[in-house]
Each structure stands twice: as C-alpha cells, then as structure tokens.
C-alpha cells in the first residue's frame, strides 16, 4: 500500500462542503484509494426540504460513487453526516457533536464556501471568512488533529500578475471589516462594496483572500496546508473521465455554446486558460494532507494548484476543441448550430451579440408569441449575458503562478503514490481532456444519452436547412424592396441577369462546338 493511503488508515476525517462539486470527489477518492480510512464526518446542512441524512443518502447514490460501490457495497457505513449550518453561530453544531468531533477527528478538509461571483459581501464574508474562523476554533479543540487543510483559490490574489505560494497581506483587517459590516444595513454594504473590493473583480476573490489571512492568523498550534486551485474543471481520469456536475466556471459556457445559444464571448485567444481537472486537485489535496500531518511544516504551506506555468493551453485552443467536440457530439435540442467565437475586441463582441444573440432571440420570441406560447429567449440571453460578464475578467488576461510547493510535494511521493494520487499536469493531453469534459457536461450535467446523438445530428441538419431557407427568403425580400424603390438597383439587376444569360449561351455554344 502507498504511504499516503497507509497514513489515512484508521483516521477520522472531517469534511466541510462535502455535498459540493469538489467535496464529493474528495469523499469518493478517500473511500476508494484509502480503503483503511476509519470514518468521514461530513458537516452538512438540511436544504430544500431535505434532511441532511436524505441529502447524503442521495449523494452517495450518484454515479460518481459507482466504482466505490463495486469495491465495497457497504461503503456508506463509513460516512457520518453531522448537521451543521456554517452561517450560524457555533456552526449550529450540537454540544454532543462538538464533543465527539473534538475527541476523534485527525484531519480537517475545509472546502465549504460560496463560489458565486455576485454574492452580497455580507453573505460571502459570513461564509468564506467567519465560518472559516469558526471551523478553525473547532479544530483548536480537537485533541488528535494532525492537519488542517483549507481550500482557497488561485484567484484570491488575482489583483497581482505574479502570485507566489505565500499569504499576502489582506486588503483590510478582517476583524475590522466584520465589526463594521455588522451594523450596516444591506443597502449601505451594497453601495460601498465596489470601494472595498477595489481591484478585485468580485466579493468571492476578496473574501477568499481574507480567509487565507484568517487561517494564517488563527492557526495557533495547528499544522496548516492551503490549496489554491485555479479553474477547476471536469475530472481527467478518476473515477472516470469527464465527470462534472455543475454549471460553474467554463462548464456553463461550454454548454451554452454547445446548445448554439452562446455565439460570442469576450476572451483573449492567446491568454492561458488555467483549467485544472478536479481529480488532480483532490489528489494534491490528499497528498498535502498527508505531508502536512507527517512533516508538520512550521508555517502554513500554500500550494498553487495550477497548470499554466507547466503545461499551458489557451482560450483560443479551447474554443476550437469545444466547438469541434460539440459538432461531432451534438447536444440535444440545440437552439442553433454550435458556432461560437471568442474575441478580445469590445465592439466586435457587441456587434455579434446584436446579430447572433439578440436578433435570433427576438425572431424566436416572435415565433413563440405567434404560436400562442410564452416568449423566453430574450430572458435567457439576459441571464446569459449577466453570467458571461462575470467570467470575462478571468478569460481576458493571464496570471503567473509559482508552483514550487506542488513540485516539492510530487517529489516527496513514492512512485506508487504518484500513480494513485496523480497531479502531474504534464501528463494532461488537452484536446483529449476538453473532449471528455464536453461529453461529460452532456452526460452528467444535462443527463443526455449518448445513444441519442444521431437524433441530435438530425436536429442540427434541420436547423441548417431552416437557416438556409431563412437566409434565402431574407435576401429575396431585401432585394425585392430594393428593386421596387430604386431605378439604379433595377438597372444593376437587369445588367447582372443579362450577363448571366450571355455567359450561359457562350458556354452552351462552346460545349456544342467541342462535341
Ligand atoms: C465561446 C465558447 C467557447 C469556449 C471557450 C471560451 C471559454 C471561456 C470560459 C471562461 C470561463 C472562465 C471561468 C473563470 C472562473 C474563475 C474562477 C475562479 C475559480 C473559483 O475559485 S470558483 C468557481 C467558479 N465559480 C463560478 O463559476 C460561479 C459563477 N456563477 C455565479 O456567480 C452565478 O451562478 C451567476 C453566474 C451569477 C448566475 O446567477 P443566477 O442568475 O442567480 O443563477 P443561479 O446560479 O442561481 O442558477 C440558476 C439555475 O441556472 C443554472 N445555471 C447557472 N449557470 C448556467 C448556465 N451558464 N447555463 C445554464 N444554466 C445555468 C443553475 O444550475 C441553476 O439551476 P437550478 O436547477 O439549480 O435552479
Ligand atoms: N469550483 C472551482 O472552480 C473552484 C473552487 N475552489 C474552492 O473549492 C471549494 C469547493 O468549491 P466547489 O466544490 O466548487 O463549490 P460548491 O458550490 O460546489 O460547493 C460548496 C459547498 O459548500 C457548502 N456550503 C455552502 N454554504 C453552506 C452553509 N451555509 N452551511 C454548510 N455548508 C455550506 C455547500 O453545501 P450545500 O450543498 O448545502 O449548499 C457545498 O457542499 C471552495 O472553497 C472554493 O472556493 C477553488 C478554486 C476553483
């Protein structure tokens, strides 16, 4: 057995954010590759009318856990859900749960966060910063804790071009901000948010930067590791290629482009697209947990978990591979044929928004109205434009991350560990990864069946024919209007038609001669 999985043997692990995208992959990998792990305590809140037990039960039924289920059908016995609402004081934990966790937990993975870019500052602060403080306080009470791993983001310091594996001074002292926002009503906070976040694009990156500082300041005697993934995408290999379950980051963009809805977006062709597969992030996270526990570094070690400096790939190349994949493997019921382009030019983008988004949406809504249905396309585009506007900051520029600690960690692993907990981004074959990613969005986000691809292709052919017919009718209509109004247009028209006739008779005559 590898030394990493050996270390997890008999350990009790606490995970926050286990119902989220990365949390689920963390739970799955721990159960599958560290079969000796004693128990996983998951802090989960009841949500949408479901109790936390029901939520965990549903989560474990999902396809992601198929491989674990095959290896050990009773794997759910290792999962212990604990009711906790991280936004509440004391994390809303019962005294008995606090007692239990304090006495048994050996390692904490703190993944929970709000990743929304439009989150009101108070909410983002409460979850990303104050809840982190509370988890740290709980961790301080744990008697057998070896390591505390905090999941941050590579974009916490996106106001810098070059980002080292250090915790930078915070934009504001978190305690002062928490105290000031406490008495302000939501409207005032909304008004001052742009001034506070300054040169960061949103409350998410701002509060994640504050959280890193809080982790550093309040770590006390804890052994800390901070993981900073860049843009986390579908899985590369594990538990199977292309697994993804949400619309965040590029996934929503890929889907919107695959459905033929998104035709243009502002992004720089030559900027590095710092995507990293979720399984690689989780492998690094588990290895960092082991390293932190065994080597007990004196100060918090930060791992920039990125690809751009090692195996760069660019947004222009991504666009090409996304389009090519969706043309070969179309999504069902596409709005139009997939044909999206990125441009860094604001005016060109606005032009294509008008021609390729708003105009077709208007026509389609008109058609819906005339056929007695509710118009919806304009509304969809308004939401899409809002979402895209929030992402463009990240797709229009480059960052440079130092990844020495990631390399150091890799060198610390045995050959077997490097295979089991592989985060060697040199091995990523981007075209293959992007293809699996797009197919993953089709299969696991949209729940579409691969056997329906012939029907989806047929639908695309129908859309193409509609477009040809529409364009021809439009051309004839414009020309008719033109001819009716202008003598000059009529003259040109007669000239072109007579020229065509002359050419035709010339070719006919010459072909008769040669025969
Ligand atoms: C031109 C094509 C070629 C492709 C090449 C170019 C690609 C460029 C891509 C650039 C991507 C850059 C991404 C950068 C990200 C960097 C991030 C740093 C990494 C991180 O640390 S955090 C993770 C990233 N976080 C996010 O991505 C969150 C962003 N999302 C939001 O902030 C909100 O969702 C948003 C966008 C404000 C929308 O809010 P709202 O309108 O309130 O909608 P909901 O979120 O509540 O969703 C409602 C409903 O709709 C579904 N949904 C969401 N987005 C989409 C979508 N794009 N398409 C379709 N459906 C979508 C969502 O799942 C909800 O469904 P329910 O069933 O749950 O109600
Ligand atoms: N996805 C990405 O591209 C990147 C993510 N990260 C970081 O990785 C971590 C995980 O992100 P990801 O998995 O994508 O995020 P998700 O949004 O998928 O998951 C967030 C998790 O946090 C939990 N959570 C949110 N609010 C509360 C609350 N009030 N009480 C209890 N639990 C709560 C959610 O639980 P519930 O199901 O109940 O809502 C969910 O389990 C975050 O720290 C994020 O900053 C970093 C870089 C990139």
Automatic annotation (TrEMBL):
Recorded GO CC terms: peroxisomal membrane
Bilayer topology term: Single-pass membrane protein
Keyword set, alphabetical order: Lipid biosynthesis, Lipid metabolism, Membrane, NADP, Oxidoreductase, Peroxisome, Transmembrane, Transmembrane helix
Residues annotated as domain Thioester reductase (TE): 15-284
E.C. number(s) listed in UniProt: 1.2.1.84
Enzyme class: oxidoreductase
Gene Ontology terms for molecular function: alcohol-forming long-chain fatty acyl-CoA reductase activity; alcohol-forming very long-chain fatty acyl-CoA reductase activity
Domain annotation Fatty acyl-CoA reductase C-terminal: ranges: 357-448
Subcellular localization(s) per the UniProt record: Peroxisome membrane
Domain of life: Eukaryota
GO biological process: lipid biosynthetic process; long-chain fatty-acyl-CoA metabolic process
Transmembrane segments: 468-486, 492-509
Primary subcellular site in the record, as a coarse category: membrane
Record's catalysed reaction(s): 18-methylnonadecanoyl-CoA + 2 NADPH + 2 H(+) = 18-methylnonadecan-1-ol + 2 NADP(+) + CoA; octadecanoyl-CoA + 2 NADPH + 2 H(+) = octadecan-1-ol + 2 NADP(+) + CoA; 16-methylheptadecanoyl-CoA + 2 NADPH + 2 H(+) = 16-methylheptadecan-1-ol + 2 NADP(+) + CoA; (9Z)-octadecenoyl-CoA + 2 NADPH + 2 H(+) = (9Z)-octadecen-1-ol + 2 NADP(+) + CoA
Family affiliation: Belongs to the fatty acyl-CoA reductase family.
Function of the molecule: Catalyzes the reduction of fatty acyl-CoA to fatty alcohols.
Designated name of the protein: Fatty acyl-CoA reductase
Organism: Electrophorus electricus (Electric eel)
The encoding gene: FAR2
């Amino acid at each position: 057995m590898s030394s990493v999985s050996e270390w997890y043997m008999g350990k009790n692990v606490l995970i926050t954010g286990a119902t989220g995208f990365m949390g689920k992959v963390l739970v799955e990998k721990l159960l599958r590759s560290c079969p000796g792990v004693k128990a996983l305590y998951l802090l989960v809140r009841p949500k949408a009318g479901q109790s936390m037990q029901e939520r965990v039960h549903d989560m474990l039924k999902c396809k992601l856990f198929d491989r674990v289920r095959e290896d050990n059908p009773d794997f759910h016995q290792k999962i212990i859900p604990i009711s906790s609402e991280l936004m509440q004081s004391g994390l809303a934990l019962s005294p008995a749960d606090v007692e239990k966790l304090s006495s048994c937990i050996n390692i904490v993975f703190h993944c929970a966060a709000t990743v929304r870019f439009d989150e009101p500052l108070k909410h983002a602060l409460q979850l990303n910063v104050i809840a982190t403080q509370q988890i740290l306080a709980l961790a301080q009470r744990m008697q057998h804790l070896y390591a505390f791993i905090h999941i941050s983001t590579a974009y916490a310091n996106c106001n810098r071009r070059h980002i080292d594996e250090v915790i930078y001074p915070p934009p504001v002292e978190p305690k002062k901000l928490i105290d000031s926002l406490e008495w302000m009503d939501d409207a005032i906070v909304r008004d001052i948010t742009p001034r506070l976040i300054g040169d960061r694009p949103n409350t998410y990156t701002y509060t994640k930067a504050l959280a890193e500082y809080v982790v550093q300041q309040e770590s006390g005697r804890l052994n800390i590791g901070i993981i900073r993934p860049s843009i986390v995408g579908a899985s590369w290999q594990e538990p199977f290629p292309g697994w993804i379950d949400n619309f965040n980051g590029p996934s929503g963009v890929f889907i919107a482009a695959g459905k033929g809805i998104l035709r243009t977006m502002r992004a720089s062709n030559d900027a590095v697209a710092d995507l990293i597969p979720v399984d690689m992030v989780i492998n690094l996270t588990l290895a960092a947990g082991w390293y932190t526990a065994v080597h007990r570094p004196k100060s918090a070690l930060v791992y920039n978990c990125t690809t751009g400096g090692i195996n760069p790939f660019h947004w222009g190349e991504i666009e090409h591979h996304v389009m090519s994949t969706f043309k070969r493997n179309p999504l069902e019921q596409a709005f139009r044929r997939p044909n999206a382009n990125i441009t860094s030019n604001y005016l060109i983008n606005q032009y294509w928004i008008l021609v390729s988004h708003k105009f077709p949406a208007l026509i389609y809504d008109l058609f819906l109205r005339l056929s007695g249905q509710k118009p919806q396309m304009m509304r969809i585009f308004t939401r899409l434009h809002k979402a895209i506007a929030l992402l463009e900051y990240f797709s229009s520029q480059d960052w440079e991350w130092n990844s020495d600690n990631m390399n150091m960690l890799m060198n610390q692993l045995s050959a077997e560990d490097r295979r089991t907990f592989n985060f060697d981004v040199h091995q990523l074959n981007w075209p293959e990864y992007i293809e699996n990613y797009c197919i993953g969005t089709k299969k696991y986000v949209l729940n579409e069946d691969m056997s329906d691809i012939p029907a989806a292709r047929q639908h695309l052919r129908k859309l193409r024919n509609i477009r040809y017919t529409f364009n021809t009718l439009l051309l004839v209509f414009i020309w008719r209007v033109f001819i009716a109004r202008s003598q000059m247009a009529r003259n040109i028209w007669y000239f072109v038609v007579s020229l065509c006739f002359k050419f035709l008779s010339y070719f006919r005559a010459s072909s008769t001669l040669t025969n």
